[in-house]
Amino acid sequence: MQKKSNIFTLGSHDIQGINKTFTMCVWNVHKCLSKELSTDIERLFHEFDIILMQEAVFSEKWNQIWKSILHFEWGFFRSFSLGKNTETGVLTGSKFRQKILDIIPTVDKEPLLRTPKASGLSLIDIEGRFEKLLIVNTHAMNFNFGKPFLRQIETVYETIKNHE
């Protein structure tokens, strides 16, 4: 496991880049609380090439599950801590090698839960092309009256608007 401030990586993969098509799943896993989640995850990893999870958990138990999926490379972008050695945030899994770029934390917190949100950025090569696929895994603000959500989306937009 490699740790870079609020970004953690697990695993690696030899497939350099995406060719013509790929499949993607976006899923809010609600802090990995479902009892059926490990079974669902195992099934999904056979069906999809890239999986973007929000409210994913990074802990000793879950890290073993993420590592056990050998054909995936993981980038975890920390939003906040749930307790000792347990983090939550967005998790980007890919069958292709990813270059982890950055995390964009929110400046605002949700009004009810007082939790920040985060977006994780990574790049994947596209075979035969100079351009790269930019993956933006965002857990957007909830329970607000518009301005925090707009600030978050505008911050992400300003970060990625020049990507080709």
Describe this structure in words.
Strand 9 (118-126) and strand 10 (132-138) form a beta hairpin. The chain has a six-stranded mixed sheet, with helices on one face. Strands 3, 8, 9 and 10 form a four-stranded mixed sheet that branches. The protein has a single domain, classed as Deoxyribonuclease I, Chain A. It is built from three helices and ten strands; from the N terminus they run ββββαβαβββββα. The chain has helices at residues 37-47, 60-68, 147-160, and strands at 2-4, 7-10, 17-18, 24-28, 50-58, 73-83, 86-94, 98-105, 118-126, 132-138. The protein is an alpha+beta fold and 164 residues long.
Summarize the SSE layout with pairings.
Blueprint: E1 2-4, E2 7-10, E3 17-18, E4 24-28, H1 37-47, E5 50-58, H2 60-68, E6 73-83, E7 86-94, E8 98-105, E9 118-126, E10 132-138, H3 147-160
Parallel strand pairs: 3-9, 4-5
Antiparallel strand pairs: 1-2, 2-6, 5-7, 6-7, 8-9, 9-10
Quick take:
The chain has 164 residues and is an alpha+beta fold. The protein contains three helices and ten strands.
Spatial ordering of strands, largest sheet: 1-2-6-7-5-4
The largest sheet is: 6 strands, mixed
Radius of gyration from the alpha-carbon trace, in angstroms: 16 Å
Mean pLDDT across every amino acid position: 81
Q: From the coordinates shown, what is the CATH architecture?
A: 4-Layer Sandwich
Sequence stretches where pLDDT stays below 50 over 5 or more residues: none
Structural class by sheet pairing and helices: alpha+beta
Query: What is the total domain count?
Result: 1
CATH topology name, in short, is Deoxyribonuclease I, Chain A
- Which percent range fits the helix content? 10-25%
Distance between the termini: 30 Å
Total number of helices: 3
Give the topology string: H per helix, E per strand.
Answer: EEEEHEHEEEEEH
Shape: globular
CATH superfamily: Endonuclease/exonuclease/phosphatase
Strand content: 35-45%
How many strand units? Answer: 10
Supply the CATH class.
Alpha Beta
